């Protein structure tokens, strides 16, 4: 989406009520993700070309539409993208489709006089989700819960270390149920405290544990202190000073850190 800059030669206008009605029809009639993207985007450009005296069928052979040559009001742009990704929830492909739309949609410009269209789409999410969790993923989930309890015991129930880890883990778990990933989602192990998620819509992402290394807090010392008390440089060429190291967190407690989602 552009920031409202006008490009020389750019054809920009608001889509008409008839244009929006046709776009809505194409969105609701889609039978799959490929058809949804193709038919909705073609309907947008058909509307934009209509008042230029041209049509998609009349474009010279080999000529491709350049999205940057066209622009619609930001309110319409955002509503159309939202409607298309909402419709894609039927197949769990909304997130993937949102990325593709950025490269094929026309540009946008701000026009406060143009209201956001209401496409009034129904809920296309499947009635039932199938979440399949492998045996090793169950073990990872149990290990994550154990790690949280160890952080609570080692740092305290009100400590930032424990609460940050707890909240990041809860966000990750909530994502398994709220990312609209289609009817079938498979969760497997991706590490001792990490999970790999594959969705029916083709989206693959990971719930990754990012542990915080135990470091010496003394100035001019680059030591990383392992669980057994041994030290090593934290960076290539780093200096491990000859002194009594002061660890950033004590030996014998669980490693601090947080979980995050990565596609």
Report on the structure:
This protein has 263 residues and is α/β, with parallel strands linked by helices. 37% of the residues lie in helices and 18% in strands. The protein has helices spanning 17-29, 33-50, 74-87, 94-104, 135-155, 160-178; strands at 11-12, 70-73, 107-109, 130-133, 184-191, 194-199, 204-211, 223-225, 231-233, 257-262. The protein has a five-stranded mixed β-sheet with strand order 4-5-6-7-10. It has a three-stranded parallel β-sheet with strand order 1-2-3. The protein has a two-stranded antiparallel sheet with strand order 8-9. Helix 1 runs antiparallel to helix 2 (33-50). The radius of gyration is 26 Å and the shape is elongated.
Determine the strand fraction and express it as a percent band.
Answer: 15-25%
Q: Structural class of the secondary elements?
A: alpha/beta
Rg calculated over all Cα atoms = 26 Å
Give the CA-CA distance, first to last residue: 22 Å
